[in-house]
Amino acid sequence: MLRTLTRRASLGAALGLLAAPQALRAQTAARLVVVGGGFGGASAARFARATYPDIQVTLVEPLTRFVTCPYGNLLLGGYRQIGDITHSYDGLRAQGVRILHDWAAAIDPAAKTVRLRGGETLAYDKLILSPGIALRYGALPGYDEAAAEVFPHAWVPGDGSQTRLLRRQLEAMPDGGVVGIAIPANPFRCPPGPYERISMIAAYLKRHKPRSKVLALDAKEAFSKQGLFQDGWKALYGPMVEWVPASSDGKVIRVDPAEKTFESEFGVRHKLAVGNVIPPQSAARIVIDSGLADQTGWAQVDPTTLASRVAPDIHIIGDANNAAPMPKSGFIANNTAKQAVASAVAALRGAAPPEAVYFNTCYSHVGEEYGISVVNIFRAGPNGFVEVPNSGGVSPRGDLPEQRRLEALYADAWYASITRDMFG
Amino acid sequence: MQPTGFLAAAVLAAALLPAPAVAAGPAPLAAQGCVGCHGPNGGGIAAGARLSGRDAGELEAILRAYRANERPGTIMPRIARGYTDAEITAVAAYFAAIR
């Protein structure tokens, strides 16, 4: 077999027959470049290779392993280890995705190129941009990168060190201490995430430090799945959880890592054993630096194709875009990735994009065996994303232990499925 | 624990076998939501029920019953209410055709 191939290759090269068509194919295969290897980017790269084998797919992602945001809160609760939420890019590589572990330094939408920090410049026919969020250090006085080593954000997992730092702090704190969580105004990544985090930290404290409490200081008045979360907190954790809305002085306006305090709007300084700051956010720097974000700091996109409103060959997916009322969730990133790739390929072939339908289910763990969810189905309307009337919604309220137990199990099925869909 | 040689042979054999799930064509985009919980190719995973290879009429009837609130469910009634007749038919046919 090998000998035959070698002989054919030599013969072909000698005659100049085999090489020519190959070169021609290489020149004409459409080039899809994907920036960012998370829920949006990995899903896009894998879907593109699986569905359109004739397309060249290059994925640019600085990290060699991906730690998921989803299920990171279960690590804080003590129900998962970092290895359980860490994924390799080997499956994508095996599928024929060219993976460059590098940073995208600059995008030139007119020339249709991406320049990498490592020096290489990639030309694309279509770009899928899924770089996620940037934390707006400085937007909350006292909170900068150095402060994040005292008050971890654990909101951009990176190599997992932030989530592990917060877990170590919880393990080290004495019983009877207060764990403060500062929660930002909308929009931010993973709307139910802070409230699942409250739950999982409370679950840990209840088992190991039962005289401690969670003080959640919120810049908002209301939040995702609020009634369900509050029912669950009351049932499982009682007075251990205190959630304070903005109108009751919940808005944190300054943090002091040296004194270990959060200061709220009306001037109260809360002394903390452990502090978790979920800071205000924007689209990742590459989106803003490339002129693809609007004055709000997020990218506007077409609701059918996810193409940038200012650069039609760049499809911006995942948490970096403003797809309201769709949430900044992993499932939406995964769904929009596929619609963006299908739309990009259709455009290259001179065809119309497929009809869009976007599906989201966000499960949250209130306890280890206590799951709740919100379901949404969205379509493309004339002026943006539109939720399908009378569809979706949150889990029913009430004393429904079997519903809660099943939803915790279904959450596990979601995690296993979606990560397989992303990474193979 | 199996001897390494056996394992290597098994891996090689698995690699040479055709893929276990083969779809007739690309998934309709509506079906892409399903694989977010029901495993690759809807083959089932953990508590996510298998969809692949089931009778198209059965799958369609179940989805329609969820949508009409005629079948109890933990989460599926909320999901089914978001989809059209045509999408339900396409999704059912797609998963039924996976062998």
UniProtKB/TrEMBL annotation, chain A:
Signal as UniProt keyword: yes
Gene3D superfamilies to which the protein is assigned, alphabetical: FAD/NAD(P)-binding domain, Flavocytochrome c sulphide dehydrogenase, flavin-binding domain
Keywords: FAD, Flavoprotein, Signal
One Gene Ontology molecular-function label: oxidoreductase activity
The UniProt record lists the keyword Kinase: no
Signal peptide: 1-25
Domain Sulfide dehydrogenase [flavocytochrome c] flavoprotein chain central: 163-279
Domain of life: Bacteria
All copies of domain FAD/NAD(P)-binding, residue ranges: 31-145
Ranges for domain Flavocytochrome c sulphide dehydrogenase flavin-binding: 354-423
Name of the protein this chain belongs to: FAD-dependent oxidoreductase
TrEMBL record, chain B:
Entries under InterPro entries matching the protein: Cyt_c-like_dom, Cyt_c-like_dom_sf, Cytochrome_c_Oxidase_Subunit
Record's keyword terms, sorted: Electron transport, Heme, Iron, Metal-binding, Signal, Transport
Record has Electron transport as a keyword: yes
A GO term for molecular function: electron transfer activity
Organism: Siccirubricoccus deserti
Protein name: C-type cytochrome
Phylogenetic lineage: Bacteria, Pseudomonadati, Pseudomonadota, Alphaproteobacteria, Acetobacterales
Limits of the Cytochrome c domain: 20-99
Range of residues in the leader sequence: 1-23
Pfam families in UniProt: Cytochrom_C (PF00034)
